[in-house]
Design brief:
It is a single chain. With about 325 residues, this protein is of the alpha/beta class. It has 2 domains: about 110 residues, Rossmann fold (3-Layer(aba) Sandwich), CATH 3.40.50.720; about 180 residues, 3-Layer(aba) Sandwich (Rossmann fold), CATH 3.40.50.720. About 40% of the residues lie in helices and about 15% in strands. The chain has a 7-stranded parallel β-sheet with strand order 8-7-6-9-10-11-12, with helices on both faces. Helix 12 links the parallel strand 11 and strand 12. Helix 5 crosses helix 7 and helix 5 packs antiparallel against helix 13. The longest helix has 21 residues. The two termini are about 25 Å apart. Bound molecules: glyoxylic acid. Glyoxylic acid binds next to loops.
Length: about 325
């Protein structure tokens, strides 16, 4: 009997069928259709693999009902939607899609930095509205050259951002759970700093860490109060890394200069107060929203499943 894979969201059905040809596939009937939590819960008990979207909750209740499950392959690099401790307890592998998301997410972080420092979105809005647009010496932006970019979380995306920022002449500092080797610090021209040093000395602070129990609200009111008043913050990782109410307060009261966000604390929905501020650039979680990334993520997630059963590399985040 073929192993059974349940796919929560129907995109790239043809690609999934090709990579998972040795599996029985359960997938929503319509293109871009999704199974609800209750539907997945009702079907999971005899499934061998689950391919989940990043916003699908894979909680202990679901995992404890999954009697045969060997792998949860998340369609994302982030896996904060999955109870990894429970999966580990039940002997279930959790896998993610690191490679395809690295470059496009770093591109969006760089885009947010450029937009904030040079007013790209703000000037575009003025052009469309007409009326006053600019003076010679008003609303000046800032050159990126020689600014200090502090990268909080120097994993793949942090490093890809460092490569881009270096090309713009920026100075790179970073903080990470594990310090990079000297060779890597030289490769990325990146100076290691403590969290406090990084937060208080960066001109732009970019959040590139995963969301875990330890990083939840890592940027809180206290951290924001340590930032320079002319510094910007950029978040392309996960919303709850920043205490969004504290961020609104800091932006409103000009405790920091601005924020570029692709992710939000509350269900990835932008807080209304952020939209009322003119020192924000607000994107709707588009870090991986490219033709290439979408397809490569599907390919990567399905390959994680195939390889677990038939041999080959699996991008495991546990075990
Ligand atoms: C996107 O947010 C991802 O985690 O891949």
């Amino acid at each position: 009997m073929k192993p059974k894979v349940l796919i929560t969201y129907n995109i790239f059905g043809g690609l999934y069928r090709e990579i998972l040809k040795d599996f029985d596939i359960i997938i929503p009937a319509t293109e871009e259709g999704s199974f609800t939590y209750d539907e997945v819960l009702a079907m999971i008990s005899d499934c061998d693999a689950l391919l989940s979207m990043w916003n699908f909750p894979v909680d202990e209740r679901l995992l404890s009902a999954a009697n045969k499950l060997k792998i949860v392959a998340n369609y994302a690099v982030g896996y904060d939607n999955i109870n990894v401790d429970a999966a580990t307890k039940y002997g279930i592998v959790v896998a993610n899609t690191p490679d395809p998301v690295t470059e496009p997410t770093a591109d969006i972080a760089m885009g947010l930095i450029l937009s904030l420092l040079r007013g790209i979105v703000a000037y575009d809005n003025r052009q469309r509205k007409g009326g006053y647009i600019k003076g010679i010496m008003t609303d000046l932006g800032y050159s990126l050259r020689d600014k200090k970019l502090g990268i909080l979380g120097m994993g793949r995306i942090g490093k890809a951002l460092a490569v881009r920022a270096k090309a713009f002449g920026m100075h790179i500092a970073y903080n990470n759970r594990h310090r990079l080797s000297t060779a890597e610090e030289e490769q990325y021209n990146a100076q290691y700093m403590t969290f406090d040093e990084l937060v208080s000395s960066s001109d732009i602070l970019s959040i590139n860490a995963p969301l875990t129990k330890d990083t939840y609200h890592i940027i809180d009111a206290e951290a924001l109060s340590k930032m320079k008043a002319d510094a910007y913050i950029v978040n392309t990782a996960r919303g709850p890394l920043i205490d969004e109410n504290a961020l609104v307060d800091a932006l409103r009261n000009n405790k920091i200069a601005g924020a570029g966000l692709d992710v939000y604390e509350f269900n990835d929905t932008v807080t209304k107060e952020l939209t009322e501020l003119d020192n924000t650039v607000l994107l709707p979680h588009i870090g991986t929203q490219t033709v290439e990334a979408r397809r490569e993520m599907a390919q990567f997630a399905a390959t994680n499943i195939r390889n677990l059963f038939f041999g080959g590399r699996v991008a495991k985040v546990n075990q």
